[in-house]
Amino acid sequence: MESENPYSHIKEFEEVCNTFQEGGASIDLMRLKLFPFTLKDKAKIWLNSLRPGSIRTWIDFQAEFLKKFFPTHRTNGLKRQISNFSAKENEKFYECWERYMETINACPHHGFDTWLVVSYFYYGMSSSMKQLLETMCGGDFMSKNPEEAMEFLNYVAEVSRGWDEPNVREVGRMKSQPNVKGGMYLLNEDIDMKAKVAAMARRLEELEMKKVQEVQAISETSVQAMPWFIFQSYEHLVEECPTIPVVREMFGDQANVIGQFKPNNNASYGNTYNSN
Fold first, then answer.
1. pLDDT of 189 over the 70 cut
2. Are 87 and 96 in contact (CB under 8 A)?
3. Cβ-proximal residues to 82 (8 Å cutoff; 6+ apart), any chain
4. Which terminal CB of the chain, N or C, has fewer other CB atoms within 10 Å?
C-alpha cells in the first residue's frame, strides 16, 4: 500500500474511461460501474464492506477511497518532503526540479499556494543552482509572480538538460571560490556562458513577441478608429482636399435626420488498485 498512490490509480482509471463511453450513459456512472474491477485484496474487501447505498456519486466514491487509502499521516509526510526539500550533492538542475515535481505530484492535495511551492524549491537549491537561475533570468527571479516563476523553472530545467555540468573536482574548486555578491559559488565558465546565451535568446523571444503584440494592437486600433479612408493622398493642402465637402455634406444630412427625430414617451418596451 505504501508503495502505491491512490491518486495515480484514480487518474489512470479516469484516463481509460475517457477513451470510451457505454452507450448513452454518463461518464461518472460508467466510472462507478467499472472502478470496482480495478481493486483487489484489502481494497476489494474495503469496497465490499461499504454500507449499501452509501455511495451515490463518483465524487463520493473518490472521497471515501482516498480517505481510506491516503490517510492523514501519509499526506503530512509528503507535505514535509515538499517543505523541507533540498538538492542532493552534485545533482543537476533538471534532475533536482524533476525530483521536486515528482514529490508535488505524489500529493496533489498538499494545499500549498504556488508561491510557497516556488519558495520551497528555491531555498532548497544549491548555491550554484541559484546562480544559474539568476544568470538566466537577469537577476530578477524573485520579482516574478508565482505562475511566471513556475514557468521559468520549467524552462531552465528543459534548457539545461543537455548541458555538461561540473564534475566532482570542479565542484570542489567552485566551493573554494565564493562569489562576493551574495555568498553564491561561481559557475563553471562554460555553463555560465550557456546560461547567458540562453537568457539572451529568451529575452529576444520576449521582445519579438512584445513587438508583434504591439503591432497587432496598433492595427486593431487603426481599424476601429478609421472604418473608412478619407484622405487618399497628401499631395494637396487640407483646405484643398476634394473629400472634405462630401464628408461635411454627409455629416450635415445625419444631423438633420437626428434633429427631426422625436422620441415617443408613450412607447412600451417588451420583452486495478492493489492495497498491499
1. no
2. yes
3. 100, 103, 104, 107, 110, 112, 117, 120
4. C
Mean pLDDT of all residues belonging to the chain: 72
SS3 state at 179: coil
Does 5 score more than 50 pLDDT?
Answer: yes
Residues 254-261, mean pLDDT to the nearest whole number: 45
pLDDT, tens digit, for every residue of 10-52?
888 888 887 776 566 688 888 888 888 888 889 889 989 999 8
- Residue 35: Cβ within 10 Å count: 20
| DSSP 8-state assignment for residue 197 | H
> In degrees to the nearest 10, what's the CA dihedral of 109, 45, 40, 63?
-20
Nearest alpha carbon to residue 106 among 4, 236, 241, 213: 4
Which pTM does this prediction carry? 0.54
Q: How many Cβ atoms sit within 10 Å of the Cβ of residue 200?
A: 12
Q: Which pLDDT score is estimated for 81?
A: 96
The backbone torsions φ and ψ at residue 185, rounded to the nearest 5 degrees and listed phi first, read -90, 150
In the DSSP assignment, the letter for residue 256 is H
- Strand (E) positions, 139-276? 273-274
The residue ranges of every structural domain in the chain are 6-70, 75-204
The grid coordinates listed for 270 are 417588451
